[in-house]
UniProtKB/TrEMBL annotation:
InterPro entries: ANM3-like_C2H2_Zf, Arg_MeTrfase, PRMT_dom, SAM-dependent_MTases_sf, Znf_C2H2_sf. Residues 1-23 are annotated as: Disordered. Keywords: Cytoplasm, Metal-binding, Methyltransferase, S-adenosyl-L-methionine, Transferase, Zinc, Zinc-finger. It holds the Pfam family PrmA. Residues 434-608 form the Protein arginine N-methyltransferase domain. It is an enzyme of class 2 (transferase). GO terms for biological process: methylation. It comes from the Eukaryota. This is type I protein arginine methyltransferase. One of its GO terms (cellular component) is cytosol. Residues 9-23 have a biased composition (Acidic residues). Gene3D superfamilies: Hnrnp arginine n-methyltransferase1, Vaccinia Virus protein VP39. Transmembrane segments: none annotated.
Length: 632
């Protein structure tokens, strides 16, 4: 069959018509772009051609195009090769210059041309010369952004170079975006792909097989047919290679987007423009409700009346006055400034009290009322955004603990403050927390919170049970309700824990201590204050404070005095009938909610193995139930 026979259908040709003109050239000049002035050809992209025109012919085509503000309708009238350098409409967003504050709303090309002309830095040339891949290019962009952020004089630089570029492009530190919404990270590579409208995932193996089958069916007979067949093979191979390149870049870009999305909440800058640990995509309502809630009197009244909570801080500070005398203290989330005033009375020379809530205005009056304004400085801000007049502080105090210890996400702010402001041998108060879990049997709780909906003034309202199953209940559990051993599911060493440790999955094994029914699980936490940061804290719930060692301890568990934290209760959808000795195995998963990291998403998986744990665990059904800890 010849290349031009009727068996080569029109439908087969139609699929390639739109691209044919872009690559149907003679063999030597395949996809080459000719300079507007001289005879030089460019085989990579039109961008290189325009850079050449600037450097050797003094003609800036892209700048002229911008100045004349060519309309979209005018662009549409151009030939099909316009697509080789006209960016996708999806990328019509603001790109910030690598150095100065200028923004470019048309394309990354214009930004890079600007960098050449005004800052003496040719990003695309470096990419080509060093053959940088996608991730190396990302590292280079983030490195420059970080250098400019740390040295504002670089905003006006007219010539820029990197001496140790090999160490930069291979350093994973620079995969972290410096700007939270850096459009350039996802657009710099678009100009070299050449197929902006090609957005689908390509099954490359299938395409290659189909093209090979088509070529095998072609039997050229005349010299012209042989020549055309030769060109067809070349163009088919070139198209396939382009698709491979596109798929590779598309995959790399998706991977990088996902990495940024997952880690953005945890990434914060060490610069003066350090951002909040709350992502920008959270609505204003979500970002404000937390601070607004702490502006109200009732919540501070509840916390101050919690003598276990407030008394523990007071006792540690007053019983260790030698640690506080003459020291600089940072109070993170100061509220009414009660902890700051304890520190001031203990002899601290300077206390910085930080709170974003409007309670700070009443706190200023409280400090003045107690004549401590010469020691205590109040700062109305997130701790992530503050600038202190001192390089480091000696002590950080903070009451950051929420329900189930981690609710409200304030531990992330404490970690930021610790890493940025605490001296190398500085003190944290508190210093250690442990999170515990146990199974419970509590008929009164089930009847009050769950079975109540079976008969409400003679009406069934069982649909109201769903929120009870899903939402964590904060209440008080009697010690006798515990039906298994108590286990530690999370240790929180505050001197060393990092942002990645705030989400966790912990395996568990419970042993039932009496016959009965497991209605759910119960969680609580214990807290230690220590004057020695290297002290070994026993990880069981019977550990008590030893004042002769400078340790103050309190528990929020059922065996201790009730606190405002109570216990967190996870009611199971179906109760579990158990005998003494029954083994329950599973895992507890705790993660920040993706839309509001101050909330928690939790999941409990479990298996009931039986007494002695002798059953074949692989044949036992695993149950899984999700729970949510929300403010509203």
């Amino acid at each position: 069959m010849s290349l031009i026979s009727s068996e080569c259908s029109e439908s087969e040709n139609d699929s390639n018509d739109e691209r044919w003109d872009d690559w149907e050239e003679d063999e030597e000049n395949q996809q080459n772009f000719k300079c507007l002035f001289c005879k030089q050809l460019f085989s990579t992209s039109s961008n290189d051609l325009f850079l050449h025109c600037i450097e050797y012919h003094g003609f800036d085509f892209q700048k002229i195009r911008l100045d004349l503000k060519c309309s979209e309708s005018e662009n549409d009238s151009n030939d099909e090769r316009w697509d080789d350098w006209e960016e996708d409409e999806e990328n019509q967003q603001n790109f910030k210059c690598l150095f100065c504050k200028q923004l470019f709303s048309t394309s990354s090309n214009d930004l890079f041309l600007h960098c050449i002309e005004y800052h003496g830095f040719d990003f695309q040339k470096i990419r080509l010369d060093l053959k940088l891949d996608f991730y190396q290019s990302i590292r280079l962009i983030n490195y420059i952004r970080k250098q400019v952020l740390e040295n504002s004089e670089l905003e006006n630089v007219t010539s820029y170079s990197i001496s140790e570029i090999s160490s930069v492009i291979n350093n994973d530190e620079y995969l972290k975006p410096v700007l939270e919404e850096d459009s350039l990270l996802y657009a710099f590579d678009n100009d070299e792909i050449g197929e902006d409208d090609f957005n689908e995932k390509i099954n490359l193996d299938r395409i290659e097989d189909q093209n090979q089958e088509m070529l095998e069916d072609i039997n050229p007979t005349t010299p012209l047919e042989h020549e055309l067949f030769k060109k067809l093979r070349i163009t088919e191979e070139k198209l396939f290679n382009t698709q491979v390149q596109l798929k590779k870049v598309e995959t790399q870009s998706d991977e990088y987007r996902n990495m940024v999305k997952e880690s953005l909440f945890d990434i914060y800058s060490d610069s003066k423009s350090e951002k909040s640990v709350i992502p920008n995509n959270i609505s204003g309502e979500m970002t404000n409700y937390y601070f607004d809630s702490y502006a109200k009197t009732n919540i501070h009244e509840e916390m101050l009346k919690d003598r276990v909570r407030t008394g523990s801080y007071r006792d540690f500070i007053y019983e260790n006055k030698d640690l506080f005398k003459g020291k600089t203290v940072l109070d993170v989330g100061c509220g009414t400034c009660i902890l700051s005033m304890f520190a001031a009375k203990a002899g601290a020379s300077q206390v910085f009290s930080v709170d974003k809530s409007d309670i700070i205005h009443r706190a200023k009056e409280i400090v003045k009322e107690n004549q401590l304004e010469n020691v205590i400085t109040l700062i109305n801000s997130k701790v992530e955004d503050i600038d202190l007049p001192v390089p480091k502080v000696d002590i950080i105090i903070s009451e950051w603990m929420g329900y189930f210890l981690l609710f409200e996400g304030m531990l992330g702010s404490l970690i930021v403050a610790r890493d940025r402001w605490l001296a190398q041998d500085g003190l944290l108060a508190p210093s250690h927390c442990h999170l515990f879990l146990a199974a419970i049997e509590d008929d009164d709780l089930i009847n009050d919170k769950f079975n109540f909906w079976n008969d409400v003034y003679g009406f069934k309202m069982t649909a109201m049970k769903n929120p009870v199953r899903q939402n964590v209940i904060v209440d008080y559990v009697k010690p006798h309700a515990i039906i298994t051993n108590v286990i530690t599911i999370k240790e929180v060493p505050l001197y060393t824990i990092d942002k990645f440790g705030l989400d966790f999955t912990s395996p568990f094994t419970f042993k039932v201590i009496r016959d009965g029914t497991i209605h759910g699980f119960m969680g609580y936490f214990d807290t230690w204050f220590t004057r020695n940061r290297n002290i070994d804290i026993n990880n069981n719930n019977e550990k008590k404070g030893k004042k002769d060692e400078g340790i103050i301890y309190f528990t929020t568990g059922p065996d201790g005095t009730e606190t405002h934290w109570g216990q967190t209760i996870f009611i199971l959808e179906h109760g579990i009938s158990v005998e003494c000795g029954t083994i329950i195995t599973g895992s507890f998963d705790c993660h920040k909610n993706k839309e509001n990291p101050r909330d928690l998403d939790l999941k409990i998986k479990y298996k009931v193995i039986g007494t002695g744990g002798k059953d074949d665990e692989s044949k036992i059904k695993e149950y899984s139930q999700k729970f949510y800890l929300r403010n509203f």
